Amino acid sequence: MKIAVIGAGAMGSLFGGLLTEAGREVWLLDVWEDHVKTLNEDGLAIEREGVTRVVRPEATTDPSAIGKADLVIVFVKSTQTKAASETVARMMRPDGRVLTLQNGMGNADILAEAVDPASVLAGTTSHGATLLGPGKIRHAGVGPTRIGPWAGGDRAAAESVAGVLSGAGIDTEVAENVHALVWHKLFINVGINAITALTGIKNGEILDLDVTRELSRNAVEEAMAVARARGVPVAEDVVEHVFQVAGATAANRSSMGQDVDNRRLTEISAINGAVVREARVCGVDTPVNETLTALVETLQGHYGERRDKKG
Ligand code: NAD
Q1: Which of 22, 110, 298, 300 reaches 20 to 30 Å from 194, CA-CA?
Q2: pTM for this one?
Q3: Nearest-CA neighbor of 173 among 165, 285, 127, 283?
Q4: Which domains are delineated in the chain?
């Protein structure tokens, strides 16, 4: 089985590295030339709890070097999913599968437009990783991964891919309702990411002031209303769960916070922006998510400008 990972940043390198260690044939595909050069010359360094080990997946910037893959795992940021989907369409075997574990809403739909929708698997992962530099990542957190067919595919393919991932130490279950799963991960990102990105605070600081808690609660409750209107089963205690996650990751800057700190394009369009888009389809009002989306888009739209500009 040939596995290609498109987007070999923090998470793509982590999954690709673990699958390589498990003896799988893995190709990492990335547009970042320095990273790919380092991977080929020195291997992939994975730091975990202060210990670093090196694994040697194949790496390239050229999709044609990989040939046809049986399983394609997409780990680009959601801003790049459309571009990646065109590569998936070219490199996946006709009976192959593509898996997205990206954050946000819309990634699986974009893939389903590029390939046979029944071949798309989606899900969520609680593993966490940080890119430390070219060829080097930190495996920051371990947790369950859940996947399932997104648009009518069969459960057997999901079971098979779950087996491959679990065999590499990525404990993976097949979910009954993968749409609900992706929405529930979205609720967490909706409640934490934009607020921390706009204010510079850490995840746990969302809980410090009533005004910030209410902002997070309102954003999440809007998203819950949209999900329910779209027919997705939603638990009652979602806001409490979002607050628990903020507390459990208190010292972290969210990924969107880190993107803003480093003046990178954020995943706002696939997170709060996706809530707004989905809301329009079902006629639900989402003023808080509209405002958070507009503010993050404004912020990232002015990265290039001098902050001390007069007038
Ligand atoms: P990252 O920025 O570290 O990696 C993305 C990689 O994609 C980069 O190396 C970039 O060069 C590459 N890339 C961009 N366009 C490409 C293209 N067209 N073809 C090939 N490669 C391309 O991002 P990440 O932190 O690994 O996150 C990836 C996804 O996983 C995001 O949706 C994120 O929200 C989600 N996620 C991240 C974590 C985490 O702990 N980092 C955890 C769960 C989910």
Answers
A1: 110
A2: 0.96
A3: 165
A4: 2-176 (3.40.50.720), 180-304 (1.10.1040.10)
